[in-house]
Amino acid sequence: MDAEITGASSIQYHNAAEQTIPNLVSPLVPHSRQKRHCCGNTSPGEFPLSANPSIVLHFLTACNLDPQDLAKLEATCSFFKQPAHFAPDHELSLAELAALDMCQKRAIFKPMTFYQRQELKKTCGGSWKLVLRFLLAGEACSRREKLQAVAGPGHSIVVTSKGAVYTFGSNNCGQLGHGTLIKESCPRPIRSLQGIRIIHAAAGSGRTILISDAGKVYAFGEDTFRETENMDQGNKLVTTPQLVESLKDIFIVQAAIGNFFTAMLSREGRVYTFSWGDENKLGHQTDLNDLEPRPLLGPLENIPVVQIAAGYCYLLALACQPNGMSVYSVGCGLGGKLGHGTRTDEKQPRLIEQLRTLNIQPKVVAAGAWHAAVVGTDGRVCTWGWGRYGCLGHGNEDCKSIPKVLEGLRDVKAVSVATGDYTTFVVSDDGDVYSFGCGASSSLGHDTFVADDEGNRHTNVLSPKLVASLKKTNERIVQISLTNSVYWNAHTFALTESGKLYAFGAGDKGQLGVNLDANQAERVEPERVNIDLGDS
Q1: Are 216 and 227 in contact (CB under 8 A)?
Q2: Whether 44 contacts 78, CB under 8 Å
Q3: What is the C-alpha separation between 328 and 351, in angstroms, rounded?
Q4: Tens digit of each residue's pLDDT (9 = 90 or more) over 10-68
């Protein structure tokens, strides 16, 4: 019990005679401190923590150091470079062990077998630090394991932090996955997915693709891996999620849907495509309706890819190499959207060399229907391809056949970019959003009407413009998704850091998930979608 503040003390003091205690204090002598050698190739000297490397390892792992920082530790201090003599590999350095420990925390790495992990390590360049960079890069550019909103062509998909899926909007092909062909104007969960945790979603015209945390792919809607506008009328409709059997032996982490093909990205960074193999357009010769996944051949066969993005008739791939990140393109080159300085097609992936010329380390890519964009680690944004309606953001409607830096955002550090059918959005590191391009259907978020002979219409925006309507929400935006199809009026989603979802643009099919007036077909101002998203 605590002693009382007042009153007699309960502590008894005893008087002790003073006495001399000899020889307990040694005479002071000058201390000669050894010089530390922890840098370069010199022999290591005094390093206090060297006697407890397990503490250092725990610190490195707990702090979630960047792979580049771990590499710098190895390069500047021999203590971090020499074998640590710890399991599971006694030859690994502390920096390598820390990278391996952090890899083992990643959801897609945990279920891998020892052989699969070693193969991934070999593919990434022979280092666990490079494997960690590969895993982190994939998570950063695709919002894997996080909240995700997809503004598809006429219908929408929302994946919550817990892996539940909500769909709403057009349902003429069963693309909402509820077992009906009835459209939904409010978000509705897909009940048949109960017990399955979804980590990624992709939308095409009349169809939906979902990917689970176990790497399984579920598809529904139009029973094909191509757009409905180009298919025979006899295709059957699938109204509930069905497992894609041809992919059951491949662990998939991302899907991208173009107009003529669908692409899949495996856990190991391998790209597979369905359809559009005629004339060897994607590096393989197959029937147009081929349902077997075909590996993307050429330069990317032995280079791991962390993100794929599909446009109308082309594919971009963000590749992870020991010397840095790079972007490859393949497919139709009309408008210069492949980024090689020409308008010719590429039958196999080809490196976009201009990004290296600009000294840009790409961190995320986006493929619009006819134009493309990339964000670098330094926050710069590049665009190229068809410039119609000002979708490239360079102040005009000119085409660019090689990436060009956006001067209009030179004072902004971008973290992500999204592209649609002649529209582009950029999200900055402070959560602001900028948009430019085609102003139709209010999908840019700017309340800009002008009168012409045909009545009122939205103006196009030729240079990056702050989306002031999103600024009014007093929320930090972390993701933008917009419709990427030439056949549908576009709508846009903005996801906030606190887990709120805002929608604007075309809503005639219920794809906004918000109520519109009787004669209202679109929404100019962002409105919050009433949906429980969980933690972001």
Answers
A1: no
A2: yes
A3: 4
A4: 434 344 444 444 444 445 445 444 343 444 444 545 556 667 788 888 888 888 888 99
The one-letter amino acid code at 166 reads Y
Token pair of 228, please?
Answer: 């409905």
8 A C-beta contact, residue 490 and residue 149:
no
pTM over 0.90: no
For residue 274 the two structure tokens come to 């369905």
| Dist. CA 256–CA 272, nearest whole Å | 10
3-class secondary structure, 141: helix
H/E stretch holding 56: helix 53-62
Could you read off the pLDDT of 206-258 as tens digits, one per residue? 999 999 999 999 999 986 654 444 444 456 789 999 999 989 999 999 999 98
Question: Among 137-151, 370-384, 392-406, 407-421, where is mean pLDDT lowest?
Answer: 137-151
* Dihedral class, residue 280 (left if φ above 0, else alpha if ψ from -120 to 50, else beta): left
Helix 128-142 and helix 67-76: axis angle, to 10°?
A: 160
In three-state secondary structure terms, 394 is: coil
Pairing, β 217-222 against β 237-243 = antiparallel
H or E element in which residue 383 lies: strand 381-385
Cα distance between residue 396 and residue 519, in whole Å? 34
Cα 443 versus chain centre, distance: 22
Cβ within 8 Å of residue 70, ≥6 positions away: 60, 80, 95, 96, 98, 99, 129, 132
Closest residue by Cα to residue 373 from 384, 357, 363, 362: 384
Task: Give φ, ψ of 191 to 5 degrees.
Answer: -65, -30
> φ, ψ for residue 503 (rounded to 5)?
-130, 145
The end-to-end CA distance of the chain, in Å, is: 46
